[in-house]
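Attaching the record inline, Q. Sequence:
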Amino acid sequence: MKINYLFLIVFGLFFNVYNAQDTKEIAKQRAKLVLFDEEKVNNTNSKYLGKIVFANSEIKENDPESKYISSYTFGDKLFIRSFLANSIGNNILIQMVEKGIKAKVINDRGSEMVTANIIYKLYIDGKEVSKTKDGSLYDEYVLHSLNINSCINDGTNTELFGEELYTDLLNHPELLTPGNHKMKIEMIPVCPRCSDNSKPEKILAVGEIDMVIPNTIKVIESDCFPKKQWSDPKLENEVLKAFKKRTDAYKVILTDKDYTVVKNEYGIVLRKGFIAAVVFKNGNDVSYEYLNFERVFDGMNFQSLQIADMTSIPGRIPSKGKKVNASCLKYLK
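Structure, as predicted:
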């Protein structure tokens, strides 16, 4: 027992000394980093450092803190602003040093950081629900700015970066139970050109807000289904009839403008087809799928409509469908 106890003491001392040396080396390398110039900010930054704040309209540089909200009704407009200790570009450089990359190596390839970016992650009641794609902030903004503005729901049909978080949540009706919930958003840096062992992982900012889910959720048309490009009620009915074994097939949205005729290498017509979104409804569970449909040519006539293989139209693969909120059904005409 005494030997084991002595070993633990020695190991603990070694670990502490190693960590101290490691921390010292990181500080030394960080001091050598050539960082991007950062914008000057007001005093609000220090108070909210590392935090994301929320508001019902776009947050501007000199807006008073009274504009920030602590409670949000789902369906209303929602905007966020992040307060950072360092710009996204500089955060990435600093995290690379913390992962053991030498400052000289980073300084020699610092120009590659112009593709610095972010993602957002959204949590409801502690459960991760969605995250954005790699975003669209590929410019000087992410290299120099200490305040990042994004939109979660601007209440229009224009989808801005960040709004996919809202759309994804809207399409999880099982999570949108009426009552009080907690919503959390995290901002994480992205470095597309960083090697796997130097990719940044630390959260830059986080915000949490009370969220109230009303009994009836507000939705706009762009939250729901794809736009109809072709109006042909007879063809829509033919598509529904192709789903003889699926009683939940509810509505068809013709997302192509016409048939695509497919020929072989000799110019002989084989078939003609199109892609459509088929809406399925089972109680309050509503979703849609993109599918291919075709009429095979027998040399004389085009045959009855049938569901086709996803590769039946060369060069085109149907997009992925999704769940939508049941309130979206009002937009189906």
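The two ends are 79 Å apart (CA to CA). The chain is about 20% helix and 30% strand.

More tomorrow.
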